Amino acid sequence: MPTEIETDILINATPEKIWNILIDFNEYPNWNPFIKLIEGTVKTGQKIKVEIAPPGAKKMIFKPKVLAFETNKRFSWIGHLLFTGLFDGEHQFELIDHGNGTTTFKQSEKFKGILVPLFKSQLHNNTTNGFNLMNEKLKEMAEK
Questions:
Q1: Is residue 105 classed exposed, middle or buried when 0-12, 13-18 and 19+ CB atoms within 10 A define those classes?
Q2: Backbone φ, ψ for residue 122 (5° rounding)
């Protein structure tokens, strides 16, 4: 039974400015309240290392595969707990340019697998809160 979380925020900045903050992974520990680490070669098809710290939950480290990395537009990956089909998460960041100096930043994740129903409440609470905290901080950084 799949579960999807989707958040978005309007940012008064260009996609280029937001993208530059989003892909400066070395700075994540200094500003990002949700994703504490991204390491590796961020390129379609490559595996990276990601550490997340959802509010009210244990931090997790996993090694997802990059699905898309389109400059100023989209960055997505898919991760699995142990093996495919148990607990899979497809995470995506998307930048929608309004052409007037504003951008909608969307952060979403689709969860699939036999363990998803056991974590549905935690996903909707802790993970959604983590997405929103990150979105707000990204907005703050981009609008400086």
A1: buried
A2: -65, -40
